[in-house]
Amino acid sequence: MSVNTFESMGTVISIRLAPDVDTEAPDAARAIAPAHALADIRRVFDDLDRRFSLYDPASELSLIADGSLPLSGSSPEMRGAYADALGWRERTNGAFTPHRPDGVLDLSGLVKSVAIERAGRVLERHGHRVFSINAGGDILTGGVPRESAWITGITDAGDRTGLLTQVTLSPGWPAVATSGSAERGNHIWLRPDTDRSFRQATVIAESIVTADVLATAIIAGGQTTLDHVTDRFPVAVLVQLAGGALLANPAFRALIVRRPDGRQSLDLTTEPSHDDAAPSPVPESPERPA
Amino acid sequence: MRRSSTAIVGVGSAAVLVAGWLAGSARFTTDLPVAPATQLPIAEKTPPPTDAGTSPLPTPTEAAPVVVAFNGPVIETKYGSVQVQVVLTDGAITDAIALTLTDSSETSVEVSARAAPILREEVLAAQSAGVSNVTGATYTTQAYLSSVQSALDAAGFMG
Fold this sequence. Notes:
- The structure holds two protein chains of two kinds.
- By secondary structure, chain A is of the alpha+beta class.
- Chain A contains eight helices and ten strands.
- Chain A has helices spanning 28-31, 34-52, 60-65, 76-91, 108-125, 208-232, 250-255, 264-267, and strands at residues 2-8, 11-17, 131-135, 138-142, 150-156, 159-169, 175-180, 198-205, 236-241, 246-248.
- In chain A, the strands form two sheets. In chain A, strands 1-2-3-4-7-8-9-10 form an eight-stranded antiparallel β-sheet.
- In chain A, a hairpin with a 2-residue loop joins strand 5 and strand 6.
- In chain A, helix 2 packs antiparallel against helix 5 and helix 5 crosses helix 6.
- Chain B is of the alpha+beta class.
- Chain B has two domains: 1-62, no CATH class; 67-155, Sufe protein. Chain: A (Alpha-Beta Complex).
- Chain B has five helices and five strands.
- Chain B has a three-stranded antiparallel β-sheet.
- In chain B, strand 1 and strand 2 (80-89) form a beta hairpin.
- The longest helix of chain B has 21 residues, at 2-22.
- The termini of chain B are far apart.
- At the A-B interface, strand 1, strand 2, strand 4, strand 5 and strand 6 of A face strand 3, helix 2, strand 4, helix 3 and strand 5 of B.
């Protein structure tokens, strides 16, 4: 397993690649040198950053923000991203929005996870089936490492050097994103009626974009959005409240890496059989190392 | 017998808590997972035997904790019927489990998928598990240097 890091979008991207490569992949010949795939990924991040950064006054989005370029005259990629963001605004009942309170269009809530998603496709095209891409704490995994698992730590909002818990990511639940109220970027704006006790929200989903958008929406929309998200989306959610208390849905509980000596009474909660319960996304046999 | 009456009070309290939770209004620290009613090792309302000839109170040094599960009464809530199982360890409530959500309407289905309080102790994982990645609120390039992820990357640790 090789570990590679580079900087883009104001953060650090770490990529882990397993040595085994699918030689039937379209660009497999180049997979022998992962540097090619890594260079392609770097280009994905940098290209998106150049177009969507509001820190770069020359970016296309900055030109739209300062009024020198009408959105209607922008690139198809810009308009596509805007349409996607509006779709998410609709699906989150307005909790996720591409507009800042001052009206400026800001798509940074979407761009990083879009970059991660594209990077995952780059790796697969190069024959890398087992990988993880971590961009500033938002993670997409591919496959399952041999003799191991994608064990992922979730940091404690009250102690950045400590972990709240660990979960197993796998092909059914490959992506995780976390948003926090303390360190929220410019793309999260609390609604006036939002419960400000939501300090950190972690969402695990089939898609990194879904995970990222919904984690952002939960912080922005509070309890109302949390209930909406767990009702409507097949996601696993962990929320840390300001006082340190935790909220988790059943799907999240199933992904927790249990202590080998886990307490008997609490272990009861992870037994399968949800026949007459919700059509929840809880896997039939939750990942539980022996 | 004292233990038994404590347990009954406990069942009632937990049932009220569950009802409050389903109504979406309660905030409390007791863990209330939604769990299936099958295959639970229920010791049906059998208080642990007391030895009449010796001290009625267990000494702290006694070996195995006594774990007993009680099924509470079925309670009607606006989301359907709820029955709670309470797990007592040495007389203290250590777990409360919603055994049944009999109403199959969409509402109760939604409720069962919702996020509920979870004990921090329950989410703690094995410290020896091989963490390869860390998710948290977005770190900047600067924050990365002091992050757990930075240490994992530097070690090239895969787990």
